[in-house]
Amino acid sequence: xxxxxxxxxxxxxxxxxxxxxxxxxxxxxxxxxxxxxxxxxxxxxxxxxxxxxxxxxxxxxxxxxxxxxxxxxxxxxxxxxxxxxxxxxxxxxxxxxxxxxxxxxxxxxxxxxxxxxxxxxxxxxxxxxxxxxxxxxxxxxxxxxxxxxxxxxxxxxxxxxxxxxxxxxxxxxxxxxxxxxxxxxxxxxxxxxxxxxxxxxxxxxxxxxxxxxxxxxxxxxxxxxxxxxxxxxxxxxxxxxxxxxxxxxxxxxxxxxxxxxxxxxxxxxxxxxxxxxxxxxxxxxxxxxxxxxxxxxxxxxxxxxxxxxxxxxxxxxxxxxxxxx
Amino acid sequence: xxxxxxxxxxxxxxxxxxxxxxxxxxxxxxxxxxxxxxxxxxxxxxxxxxxxxxxxxxxxxxxxxxxxxxxxxxxxxxxxxxxxxxxxxxxxxxxxxxxxxxxxxxxxxxxxxxxxxxxxxxxxxxxxxxxxxxxxxxxxxxxxxxxxxxxxxxxxxxxxxxxxxxxxxxxxxxxxxxxxxxxxxxxxxxxxxxxxxxxxxxxxxxxxxxxxxxxxxxxxxxxxxxxxxxxxxxxxxxxxxxxxxxxxxxxxxxxxxxxxxxxxxxxxxxxxxxxxxxxxxxxxx
Lengths: 325, 285
What we know:
heterodimer, A: mainly alpha, two-stranded antiparallel ribbon, globular
């Protein structure tokens, strides 16, 4: 930076233009319930929640180079704790929510302790195995978790029982959490994670404590997944082993990849694509799992950069051609 | 633990060995973590069950399961995985997608009920071993596990194919550079590993029974075994299977609801000191 360049005006860390874009998107999202049916508002709420989950996975996958298959479990633990705390232990929704977040962060910290020494496929395997343990516990520890039947409980506070207020509450939470994640990956700490993704050995020789950074990155990512899980418990008023199952992690990863690894906000695009697909498909067939699997295979083979990534690549090619002329 | 429980642990370990050895062979040589391995196990069990009940022959069931799963393995490897060669992450996630499809199809074909593969007449009942009366079939599983171990040991250490596989685990590029068609070795290994999953499915189907989430359970155990034993090591799988089999039995006896902890606690501890597992070696590429 020479100092003579004009500095763009920054609003809470964003350039004026992107701040404007964010405001427009938020306003549009806030207006959605006015035109959508109750069912569609429910879908939109789900998209927001899973967008947060996909983003939390992207913090690790896109910015630290580690794809986790255990985030569904972290997400689910938060859900279980929220439902248990409010329905069984009789706590207020707010304290149940906080407890859920704390539990998810704690689980993420344990996962992180074990997983930070591994990378690549080993990281994937280990997080998968750890997620499976959580699933096994939720399934077998019947007295506390309700076993296969799961747990039901009215978790929402009275003023959020209606679908519209709940959607707006989730929207506000999502906006805050997304902003926090965006600041996180752009912070010096986030840049260090990027450095670790690109070259672990170089960061090590520069004197960075790589395992510690990964540990913190994983825990923070788990904290965000926990918020998504707590919101989901409030949305559904129900948790069951399928909330923590591998399929949950896989859907999160799929949304993240579909949106584009390392794009962060692509998570919402991916979540919207997958959830819309799920609902369209479910109207015609019960074989959603097959469709999900086939989608996964096709994305891996045809569009590993995700929707946004592929669009960007096409745009870049177009621009090159334009410049070439 | 009583003798009976130790035998339970050993027989479970033998079953796990058959399944996990296929998993680690593929992982070790092809660098593919086949997350569809659990689904292949379950499908092998279902196919074996169907063949065995229709023909009344347990052996035919075993052959049918192995052939069918090897065929599915061929489709997975040649039809899908060939498009994502060289990219670990995409391979893993692709096999996961494949597992989802297989699981759903199995649900369509065999439904949600649980099945038990019929045990042949000569393996029914029990016999006296080490002073306890023990089911003959589970002893048969134990023997089969040992036979498979011996067979793989012989294959890996005393045949040309085995030498190529071992060389490929260490450095596939060098093997290829010395004029060997490593692709063919890869394919044979993939089919062999898949067939072992099918065989495991039939064997497990006769004493653990077959039901829609059985694949996930077996997959977790296989993962634990490979993480403990290390990539591509036959001895590692053996030791890992024994550890996981015995710990699981111990866990089920002492803390039935938290049995998973008893396996994964030691695994996590081990990982802290040896990230590549007990017998794992760093990949050269």
